[in-house]
Design brief:
This protein has 445 residues and is an all-alpha fold. It has helices at residues 8-40, 43-79, 83-110, 112-119, 126-136, 140-155, 159-183, 187-210, 226-260, 265-299, 303-330, 332-337, 346-358, 362-377, 381-407, 415-444.
Length: 445
């Protein structure tokens, strides 16, 4: 496993930079769809893509749940010198994801309209939502397998290759979007088809690696080992929830906006949600990029290196979040302008204003994501899961209800900042508890 080098900091950068880039690319898949749909179809169709986003995020979250859970187990096994066991765990994971993908595709197609209505489709957006999700559903395996392969190829020691492959997929998605939406006028169907095809194509590149001679992790014969699957689920649940938290947040925000502000502000939140996705997934990139390293050294019992890697992650979050918020404030007009061409409209002005308010939460989100990822890496899944559930569901819903009851619809745009603040207090508390437990284990050893 190509993890150890002369400089731990260089190893850290070697893994997190490609991971962040890969996360950007995954976030841009849906954002590119939105831009082409807004320009090539209508703003109503753009809103439909936003309503559909919890579904696509659910596919990604299932993938990352097993990818991170499997990656943690594999990295620890490789750190312990158990290569054959790591191969069996890897192969079992891929087989399991294929089965899950088939089940998801069938269920979604059977219950397509109820799912669209549950996600918040209105009379105007329902046809677009059904068309978008209905096109993606048969290609669910592409989303789930491509994301899982991307994480595991980094665990195999090839983070740059992972980045190259996802960039190829993103470029292909842009080209296909242009032809299918703008040239062929296939609308929402064309955007969804372009995204699905792009995900499937990158799987072929990943398979070339894992079936080749260069990597450490290989396909092998295996017998179903359900205790290992459960171990993967425990270790990956927090990362899966983190990935899904964006979709859950979008779902609840959509419901509150429809209730307090009406349908038009959904366009504003659609634009915000794209940036939320990019920021959250960037922070997840830091957590996921450092995860194989931390798990590897944790498997070797080298606590000093684990702690240094965690500190590097926190510093990375500080730098990235500060830059991100600055760019969001300064570039709000440009970001909104990608989706709304009429810069004199009331919708454009209000979108810029609420986008700047919402971006304050970007200062905090990274710390919660990275701390949760750290707990996953050292196999403290309970703390990691509590953090992910809190920021992705419990605290965001609580904040929405509290602020809307006090300030009405205006409170919606501040809910994320309040939720992340409360979650950070919880995360810091868990860090202190973890240090005490690890110190106790070391003393007993």
């Amino acid at each position: 496993m190509k993890l150890e080098g002369k400089s731990l900091k260089k190893d850290f950068l070697k893994f997190i930079l490609p991971s962040i880039a890969a996360q950007w690319v995954f976030a841009l898949y849906t954002m590119v769809d939105g831009i082409f749909i807004a320009r090539g179809v209508s703003e109503t169709a753009l809103t439909a893509v936003n309503i559909s986003m919890p579904f696509t995020m659910a596919l990604f979250s299932i993938s990352i749940l097993f990818a991170i859970g499997t990656s943690t187990v594999i990295a620890i096994l490789l750190g312990q010198g158990k290569g054959k066991e790591a191969n069996r765990v890897f192969t079992q994971n891929i087989a399991l994801l294929v089965i899950l993908s088939i089940i998801i595709s069938v269920v979604v197609l059977i219950f397509l309209e109820p799912l669209a209505l549950f996600l918040g489709a209105t009379k105007n957006t329902l046809p677009y939502v059904k068309e978008y999700i209905g096109t993606l559903a048969p290609m669910a395996f592409g989303f789930i397998l491509s994301y899982s392969f991307e994480t595991l190829i980094k665990t195999d020691g090839f983070p740059k290759m992972a980045t190259i492959i996802v960039i190829i997929g993103a470029l292909l998605n842009c080209v296909l979007d242009y032809f299918m939406v703008i040239v062929f006028k296939w609308g929402v169907f064309g955007a969804a088809l372009a995204t699905g095809i792009s995900q499937i194509v990158v799987i072929l590149f990943y398979l070339k690696h894992f079936l080749g001679k260069n990597g450490t992790i290989k396909f092998s014969k295996f017998k179903w080992d359900f205790p290992v699957i459960w171990r993967e689920i425990k270790n990956g649940t927090s990362s899966g929830i983190t990935e899904m938290s964006t979709g859950i947040t979008i779902f609840f925000f959509n419901q509150m906006i429809l209730r307090y502000l009406g349908e038009e502000p959904l366009v504003s939140y659609t634009i915000i949600s794209y940036m939320v996705s990019i920021i959250t997934m960037s922070m997840a990139g830091i957590a996921q990029g450092s995860q194989p390293l931390i798990s590897y050294y944790h498997g070797q019992g080298r606590r000093d290196r684990c702690q240094k890697l965690f500190r590097y992650s926190i510093v990375s979050v500080l730098v990235f979040s500060t830059i991100a918020v600055g760019l969001c404030f300064l570039g709000a007009n440009q970001v909104v302008g990608l989706f709304i061409s009429d810069q004199t409209s009331t919708l454009f002005t209000s979108s810029v204003a609420v986008f700047r308010i919402f971006s304050i939460s970007f200062l905090l989100v990274g710390y919660n994501v990275v701390i949760g990822g750290y707990f996953t890496s050292i196999e403290f899944p309970l703390y990691a899961t509590i953090i992910s559930l809190s920021r992705g569901l419990i605290l965001i819903v609580l904040s929405l209800f509290i602020l809307t009851s006090i300030f009405g619809g205006k409170g919606i745009w501040w809910a994320s900042t309040l939720a992340e603040s409360l979650c950070l207090i919880l995360s810091i508390r868990f860090l202190f508890l973890t240090r005490k437990k690890l110190a106790k284990y070391q003393n007993e050893a």
